[in-house]
Write the structure tokens for this entry.
Amino acid sequence: MAEPAGARTGARRVLAADDIGRAVTRMAHEVIEANRGLDGVAIVGIEAGGVWLARAIGAAIERIDHAIPVGSIDASLYRDDIGLRPVAPGAVSDLPFPIDGVSVVLVDDVLYTGRTVRAALDALADYGRPRAVQLAVMVDRGHRELPIRPDYVGKNLPTALIEKVTVDADGVVIESTGGSQ
Amino acid sequence: MSLVIRNGTLIDESGERAADVRIADGRVVEVGADVAGDDGDDVIDATECVVSPGFVDLHTHLREPGREEAETIETGSRAAALGGFTAVVAMPNTDPTQDSVEVVEFVRRQGERARLCDVRPSGSITIGRSGEQLTPFAELADVGVTLFTDDGNGVQDPQLMRRALEYASGLDVTLAQHCEVEALTAGAVMHEGECCSHLGLPGWPALAEELMVHRDIELVRLTGAPVHLLHLSTARSVELVRAAKADGLAVTAEATPHHISLTDELLASYQALYKVNPPLRTMADVDAVRGGLADGTIDAIATDHAPHTPESKEQPLDAAPPGMVGLETALGVAIASLDMSLSEIVGAMSWRPARIARIDDEHGRPIAAGEPANLTVFDPGHRWEVVPAELASKSHNTPFVGVPLEGRVRSTILRGELVVNDGRALR
Amino acid sequence: MTPTPSGGSASLLSIDELGADGVARIMDLADHMAEVNRRPNPKVPALRGKTVCNVFFEDSTRTRLSFETAAKRLSADTMTFAASQSSLNKGESLRDTIETIGAMGVDAFVVRHGSSGAPWMIDGWTTASVVNAGDGWHAHPTQGLLDAYTVRTALGRAAGFDGVRIGIVGDVKHSRVARSTAAAFAALGADVVFVAPRTLLPPVPSMPTTEDLDGVLDDLDVLYLLRMQRERMTEALVPSLREYTARFGLTPERAARLADHVLVMHPGPMNRGVEIAVDPSELPGAMITKQVANGIAVRMAVLFDILGGGASLEKGAR
């Protein structure tokens, strides 16, 4: 594993780029296996962190089998902390395919309290009635506040509440924020 | 028993000197170094203070009768005394208007009852200030009215103004004009310029004032009768008066504390506190008005004290009435804003306005034995900020909150009687 | 300009106070809201539990409906207080009215008032947010924003309006729309010119001016026509509507000269035959109904911004 660049500030890299690549490929296989093929399966990344991962999983699935629809959804207008902290939406939702009767794989980078996924489920419902919704995340860091569990996980990563987890194609970094959140 | 003022610097028209003053029976009885006193004398220590003739305000709205919720003659007189004024000319835009002996006498009596300041009612130029029929000048002059004005409005009709000047010219009175051509100010809220353009507020052009200043100067040239121009606010007005004086015309003028200190940019707050007639102008105008006072083009500082209730000022700018209170802050604003000697400032607040109001037999007098004891003691170096709730005026619509003021009145003596001491009204 | 307490505010009073960054933020948010509006069920729960009160001291059914629709699509509760100013003058003061309604639990007041500056006063009297829905001649910031958003989407100019030439034609002096729309366009980098006779311009205009519509017509990317009020004639500001139309109206001759890419905009309601003497539906670049539709998205963006988005939480902190 690469030496963390920000070691002095308490940041540590727990997954490297090739770890991410392997996890994406594994999750792609798992999606195909769990759905017994790809009929009526679509992938939807949650803005902002889940979109690149959704595209990566979609690309992996295409390499393994064939292309399936990949979209994105911004859940910020569905969050339960509006008015408690400033909520800034990411890019506009892009769901250029109907989701009625589709098995939607929601994708996010980090699963934490579960509140973002809850908001994304509500957002998704405003676009139609999927046959099923599954959840894929690169990192499950624990500390759930809602009864939500992932179907596909890149890495289970126990963390402390004061830690911040950053995920991108280059890997996963955990850093201490040095105080309570 | 007498009153002795010790250790002060005396400023009057004859100049400046250090001397003590002894006052008895309403008059100055002795001026000199180390004036002797009796054990029973009241003594004011005026160390670092100026002792001057009491200030005279040519332009005070006391609101009584008619708008006692905003000010009464008593509360306005108290504000005046606290501001160092021993005489105020009460503007006629009361309800009913000061256009009859009865109303004028009522105002005078209320002033005498309050005994805080010499309240000199003005008369209106036209009945009801409606610009149509002349007020009986002689009847009012007989009961002591010396200054006539339709203030609040200008006399719009040039023919009527000409007749007023001609008729009044034999009566030893002064006509004073509120210079505003109303056809140019219909609906206007603030000075016409960049600020009003930006704020979307109807503009009040400088020309509306200057046209009437010009007209009345020419009427003075035509009739020979004197005119006093109220609250000049624009650079061009000052120039017009300067030229008129150079021509030897009987024109006098005043400027308010707010027009030598505040600009139209304050209206960006949309607070009606800053709405006034004439409106706050630009910095160039403020500088010109200061210059006019400094070179004597403008004779007097006059407050245009205009009390309004909080409810009336707590309206959008177009609905709120114009006006600001100013009696208690006038000196502090003048010293802080003007690059003039204390002697010149005192002159502009005392003997010069006293002459314009034709009350210089009692006010603005030299400080000398035998003279009426209408005096003000002020600390010219005292720096302070106004607290609206502490104003004695019944209304607190001062625009000077947060403005550093310099110079504060300690004591005011009206006809030998101490009415303000240590900055507090004694009645 | 009114000083803004912290570079931003939980109220939207003018484009100046919003600033260029704020304008850009609202534009981006409006994209989200436009996406919501394209759905079969154009409603999101974003402002559930919030109450928006329309307080209109001047009649404006279209603006009020637009705000009301915007609030409802964000799941806010709405109330409406419509008062003519004359009835207000008879008794209760503006402040008492606002404090009374505020006591019922209002998160945002949407205020239309005939007096310039009234929303600033109201903002000082309430802890709720205030959205200026038009004050006197002064400002109508959501109109400015929806106009900017219309140009942005029609010209595909999400990055800014550099090089876009916009002519605002007509009664700029008495127009809160002109002030706010010009400010919003300018904040995004457009070149704005006011086209009007001197009598219909403010004493010191904020933009370059010309009286020669024909001289600038060929250079414009956007032709923005203002509503011409009939009472301007009695105030001797223009001699006649006929002469106004001839000099400043969109006549068939001028319409024929317009290139297809030129956007034609109007804040509504139109005086047909006065500022616009052609059928706008026959103009390729007519944006007038798009402006109305975009108004809802932009007002959703504004309400979300102050009650839940980037500008929220600031009023309480100041």
Chain B touches chain C through 24 residues (CB under 8 Å). Residues 206-223 of chain B form the longest helix (18 residues). Chain B has two domains: 3-50+370-425, 54-356.
